[in-house]
Specification:
Blueprint: H1 4-16, H2 39-50, E1 57-64, E2 70-76, H3 85-98, E3 107-113, E4 118-123
Length: 130
C-alpha cells in the first residue's frame, strides 16, 4: 500500500495539469514543433494583427485532424501568455470566425514560442470538456 500511494498521487497530478485558468487543456499536439509558419500562415497572422490582435503573433495555421476537429497552431514571439490567455484565445477565435473558419464545434489551440516550445494547449471541444 505504501508503494501505490506515490504512484496514485503522481497519476492524479498528471491528470490534473494543464494550462489556462479554465482547465480546458488536453495535450493533442507535440510539446515542441520544428515546423515554421508558411506564407499563408504569416498572411493570416498579418490580418489578425491589423484587426487588433496580439502584435507578437507571426503565424496562424488551421487544419482539421483525423476526427474532424479544427486544430489551430499559433506562433508567437512571446515567452508566455500567463496573464490573460483566455482573453487571447477568445479574441483569436472571434477573428478566425470573421475570417470564415467555423469553430462552433470547438477547436484545439496550440501556441508555440519562436523557439518551437509549446506554451499552451487549449481544448474547447465537447470531448475535451465533458
Amino acid at each position: 500500500m505504501k508503494r501505490i500511494l506515490p504512484v496514485l498521487f503522481l497519476a492524479a497530478a498528471v491528470l490534473l495539469t494543464g494550462c489556462g485558468s479554465s482547465g480546458h487543456a488536453r495535450p493533442s499536439g507535440p510539446p515542441t514543433t520544428t515546423v515554421t509558419p508558411s506564407r499563408a500562415d504569416t498572411d493570416l497572422a498579418d490580418r489578425y494583427r491589423k484587426a487588433g490582435g496580439d502584435t507578437d503573433v507571426y503565424g496562424i495555421d488551421h487544419a482539421k485532424n483525423a476526427k474532424g476537429t479544427i486544430v489551430l497552431r499559433v506562433w508567437t514571439r512571446r515567452k508566455n501568455y500567463d496573464k490573460n490567455f483566455d482573453g487571447f484565445a477568445a479574441k483569436l477565435a472571434s477573428f478566425l470566425t470573421r475570417e470564415g473558419i467555423h469553430l462552433n464545434q470547438g477547436y484545439v489551440l496550440n501556441v508555440y514560442s519562436s523557439d518551437g516550445t509549446r506554451l499552451h494547449n487549449y481544448d474547447t471541444t465537447p470531448e475535451g470538456n465533458p
